[in-house]
Amino acid sequence: MEEGMQDYMELYLKEAEELLQSLNSSLLEFEKDPSREDLVEEIARCVHTLKSNSASMGFNKIADLSHSVEDGLIMLKEMGIEASDEIIDILFECFDYLEVSVDMVSSGKDEPDNSALLKKLEKIKSMDIKQGEVRGAKLAERPHTIKAVRSIKVDIGILDKLMDLVGELLITTMRFQNLNAEYKIKEFDKSISQLSMLTGDIQYEVTEARMIPVGQVFNRFPRMIRDLAKRENKKVDFTMKGSDIQLDRTVLDQIGEPLIHLLRNSVDHGIESPKERKKTGKPETGKIQLIATREKNAAIIEVIDDGAGFDPERIKKIAIQRDIITGEEARTMSKKDLLDIPFLPTFSTSEKITDVSGRGIGLDVVKTRIEGLNGSIRMESDVGKGTKFTLELPLTLAIIKCLLVYVGEERYALPLMNIQRIVSIKKTDIQHIEGNEVFILDNEDIPLTKLRDVFDLPSEDDDKLTVIITERAREKHGIAVDGIIGEQELIIKSVTKTLKRVKGIAGATILGDGYPALVLDIVGLV
Amino acid sequence: MPKILLADDSAFMRKILTNMLAKIGYTDIIEAEDGEEAVSVYNREKPDLVLLDIVMKKKYGTESLKDILGINPDAKVIMVSAVGQEKVIEEAMQLGAKGFVVKPFKEDDVITKIKEVLG
Predict the structure, then answer these.
(1) Which of A309, A291, A310, A311 minimizes the C-alpha distance to A301?
(2) Angle of helix A249-265 relative to helix A221-231, nearest 10 degrees?
(3) Would you tell me how many other CB atoms lie within 10 Å of the CB of residue A295?
(4) Are strands B49-53 and B4-7 parallel, antiparallel or unpaired?
(5) Nearest residue of chain B to residue A9 (CA atoms)
(6) What is the enclosing helix (H) or strand (E) of A402?
(7) Would you tell me which CATH number, out of the four given (3.40.50.2000, 3.30.565.10, 3.60.20.10, 3.40.50.1980), belongs to the domain A213-394?
(8) Residue-level pLDDT, tens digit, chain B, 119 residues
(9) Before B47, cis peptide (omega within 30)?
(10) Taking a C-beta distance cutoff of 8 angstroms, is the pair B34, B57 a contact?
(11) How far apart (Å, rounded) are the C-alpha atoms in residues B56 and B51?
(12) How much is the pTM?
């Protein structure tokens, strides 16, 4: 699209649809009565307008084809040539193309190739068409559907508001469920379960309505990879799949940078120089793929390269050098655990500093960003064969799965994403190391934070503790609560400035019984 | 502030021109969406300037131009054309149009031409 023209898109599409409709109906009329010159004029006027409008938007293929149709029509009229069936078929084909193209640009895609049609139109102009030739099957196959308006533009603020309302609706529904669980009115059962289903459906639809294709972020990558590869003297074949997969706008806004980082890493540290690749029997051109797929409740984005891969031995060496692990730990560590190490802040496998991705920094930053979105990232890598990063992203940020717990009188929610498991430990198992409380689980020292201490409540008499094990960047941490209530989808609302300053609070939510609960930020707590 | 008539059958084009004119403070805009309406609105409103599209419904731009000049021989009319309409432009200029601009618009060119014709 031409710069600065976004604001006109809505009007452009509306008018383009009107023009296309008029083009098709005029041509149909004309086919019935080829003596009507006024219809040829009307068709010429419509393609003319479509041409000018499309050229203004920067949709040059639509403009070029419209121009060529206009030209052909003017010529037919001036030379008094009667339009053959074949000419009419070609015109219909052109209008189909224009319709498809307008559809594509309306969803942010590129216009399809128009060269075959341009050639056919040239044929009309050179009058290389045999009059009365048997009509092709094309026209007969054309679906005769009435096209209604399929999309309208809605302000993002309205969608945010809708999402808020869906949140309230979810809460109210939960409230009904809770009440009925308490009062057990049989007559309500069916209606409440129906209400809950409908609410779920609405939540799904509103979430969908906020979606934007990832292609809008992906679009800039091919050029970036090309430039980076050139600068590094590497040969890279970059392919993208699933550009039409959709994500919530807020999520999409925040994945661009992490993806740039991963792709840069792939060019810089993944793909080897053509010489090196040749030596190891690989094709000189390396492959980088960016693939988006959609699952029911998440979007998966993979960054795959067929480069050098991470060498576990080298990771071990550097991790020991930087005191991340001990030699003993290195010997017993699984490959999977080793591949988690590069995500730690103090780690980098690249000894050479380049200006492409610094010291290979960033994997920890990438991980923090993705986890900040309640997503996750993992890496698989084989030496000499390549690396694959898999990002799992939530479809929306507004509603997330949480674990509900209670401490004293209050209930709290913890995002499920970072929770590994829940264990019960004896108070006598707690040790004090340098003023911190620690307990041992599977031969591992795990630091412990008691929410009762955090909230300044007296300890419980019970000699057992319920502990939630969280894991972030390979660091495990235990959070002691009084008890677990269960798993729930919650609508996260932001808190006021005063509460925002309190460490360990991510937001607030309203529970099914109408009472509020704080959503805890695990990172801030530990 | 000059009163300007935009005659174009495309609401999209009228919007683009309206926004361009607003940028230089010209907000007294009236619109017409076909050739006949252009003539009748001209007759009623007597605008200081007309931006007249060539390919329009009901009446071609050149025909509308003749009618407008019939109402007021000194009318300031700028023809709006697209690529490939050189012949029509030539005809319009001979009829008495004060200038022409070409779609897709280059904002600077359009503004310069409008200011030049308004004097």
Answers:
(1) A291
(2) 20
(3) 9
(4) parallel
(5) B12
(6) strand A399-407
(7) 3.30.565.10
(8) 999 999 999 999 999 999 999 999 999 999 999 999 999 999 999 999 999 999 988 888 899 999 999 999 999 999 998 877 888 899 999 999 999 999 999 999 999 999 999 98
(9) no
(10) yes
(11) 13
(12) 0.48
**In B, which residues are within 8 Å of A53 by CB distance?**
10, 12-13
Q: What ipTM, to 2 d.p.? A: 0.92
Q: Tell me which residues of chain B have a C-beta less than 8 Å from any C-beta of chain A.
A: 9-13, 15-16, 55-57, 82-84, 103-105
Q: Which range scores top for mean pLDDT: A10-14, A81-85, A120-124, B49-53?
A: B49-53
A71 contacts B13? CB cut-off 8 A: no
Supply the CATH classification number for the domain A5-140.
1.20.120.160
Which position has the token pair 């012949």?
Answer: B87
Phi (first) and psi of residue A133, to 5 degrees:
-65, 150
Identify the residue whose tokens are 């030739």.
Answer: A133
Residue length of chain A: 526
Cα–Cα distance for residue pair A329/A320, rounded to 1 Å: 9
- Taken in order A488, A491, A497, A498, is the CA torsion positive or negative? negative
Q: Do B16 and A56 touch (CB under 8 A)?
A: yes
> Is residue B82 within 8 Å of B103, Cβ to Cβ?
yes
Equal fold, A213-394 vs A399-525: no
Residue ranges covered by each domain of chain A: 5-140, 156-210, 213-394, 399-525
Give me B102's structure tokens: 């070409």
**Residues in chain B within 8 Å Cβ distance of A8:** 12, 15-16
Q: What is the pLDDT of residues A194-226, one digit of tens each?
A: 998 898 889 888 888 888 888 878 877 887 888
Query: Which residues in chain A are contacts of B13 at CB distance < 8 A?
Result: 52-53, 56
Burial class (CB within 10 angstroms; exposed 0-12, middle 13-18, buried 19+) of A251: buried
Contact B105, B17 (CB under 8 A): yes
The CATH number of the structural domain formed by A399-525 is 2.40.50.180
Which residues lie below 8 Å from residue B2, measured CB to CB, with a gap of 6+?
Answer: B26, B28, B47, B48, B49, B118
Residue type, A55: A
Only one residue has tokens 């209606």, namely A191
Strands across the sheet with A298-305, in order? Answer: A236-241, A286-294, A298-305, A386-394, A376-382
Tokens of A111: 């216009």
Considering the domain A156-210 in this protein, what is its CATH number? Answer: 1.10.287.560
pLDDT score for A286:
94
Residues on A contacting B at a C-beta cutoff of 8 Å: 2, 8, 11-12, 15, 44-45, 48-49, 51-53, 55-56, 67, 71
Query: Which pLDDT score is estimated for A88?
Result: 86
